[in-house]
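Supplementary Note 3. Input sequence used for the single-chain structure prediction.
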Amino acid sequence: MAVDTANLAALIGSRICHDLISPVGAINNGLELLAMSGAMAGPELELISDSVLNANARIRFFRIAFGAAGDQQMGRAEIVSVLDDISKAGRLKFQWDHSEGCSRSEVRMAFLAALCLETALPYGGMISISCDAGKWTVAGEGRKINVEAPLWGYLDASDTSANLAPAQVQFAMLPVAAQEADRKVGFDHTEEKITVWF
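The predicted structure, written as C-alpha cells, is reproduced below.
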C-alpha cells in the first residue's frame, strides 16, 4: 500500500519524536541524580536542567503536531500536561478551554494552528484553544501581531506561492490535516489578536 507525502512526513515526525523522547528523559533522570547526590550544583546544573525540560516539552508537543494522528482519543489531562510544560519553557502561554477529551487528529490541528500563531506573536502572548459545537477556535493575543501574508495564504489556499522555511511547515500541514478531517481553515486578525478556526 502506497503512503502519500503528508502521511509519510507524519510518520517521520512520529519516529523522530519517539526516538528522542527516551534519551532526553534519561538525561533528565541523570540530572536529578546529580542534584540529589550534591555532586554538582549551581547555575550550570539549573541551565542544563531547564534546557532538558524545554526539549522534552517541545518533543511532546511536536509529536502530536507533526506525528501521525489517528482516531484514538486523548484525555484532557494529557493535553493540558503537554501545554503546561511548553508554557513553562517559553514566551508563550497556552490555555486549553475544552472540558472533554477529543480525537488526536483534532488536537493535532489545534497544535498546528498554535504553531502558526506562534509566528505572529514575536513578543510572546497567550494562545487559547477552545471548541464550541464542533468548531475549533485557536486565538492568540499579544503586544504586537506580525502577520506575514504570504504564509497565511496557505491556510485558506488563497496564496501558496511563498517558499516555506522548515520553521513554517505548519502552514502547509494544517490545511492538509483539515482536509483529511473534512474541515476548512479560516483566520482573521487585528493589531492585538489573531484567530484561526477549523
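The mean pLDDT is 87. The two ends are 30 Å apart (CA to CA).
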